[in-house]
What we know:
Layout: E1 12-22, E2 27-33, E3 43-44, E4 46-49, H1 56-68, E5 74-81, E6 92-102, E7 115-119, H2 130-147, H3 161-172, H4 178-188, E8 191-198, E9 206-211, H5 213-221
Amino acid sequence: xxxxxxxxxxxxxxxxxxxxxxxxxxxxxxxxxxxxxxxxxxxxxxxxxxxxxxxxxxxxxxxxxxxxxxxxxxxxxxxxxxxxxxxxxxxxxxxxxxxxxxxxxxxxxxxxxxxxxxxxxxxxxxxxxxxxxxxxxxxxxxxxxxxxxxxxxxxxxxxxxxxxxxxxxxxxxxxxxxxxxxxxxxxxxxxxxxxxxxxxxxxxxxxxxxxxxxxxxxxxxxxxxxxx
Length: 228
């Protein structure tokens, strides 16, 4: 005997994406301006409904690609939002994801969505419960960044120690002592000095580093604990 599900209510399920970027000084978030009702013209996260032939992960990946043209970026499921009246038009549950994008990548923002990078600290109020999603995503990003090297997803392949410090200060919204920060990062032994310099910051220049993922994975298999 097959269970008859027709007696149960049917709900819509969507995904919403909190997309973080870093411009070298500030943590940013990619927002879109709604071009349809309700709340047309207001700022929103990028989202979409989950298709009948895709998982929520696949839907989030599709939504991100539609907006940015990018593939294979850091994407992590965050939380499911199910408040009964979270949207005024229908009962819609949303699974949120946060993504980390290197702004220097060849991003092809889809003009259809009127998207803009906005400094996180200066972000406008968002529709529905999207402010809560951003708040939850920032909290998760900080937890992850303190125990995993996901912050490198926001940096170009080669970066200075100052770039790295700026990034972590932006993520945690606090200032770090330069000497202590550099000493802590060097003690992790997961960066490679490229022996090339960024000459834009000073006459002497600053060495450029890159994250050694293979070395990090090997150290993790040996019990290494990443902590900033």
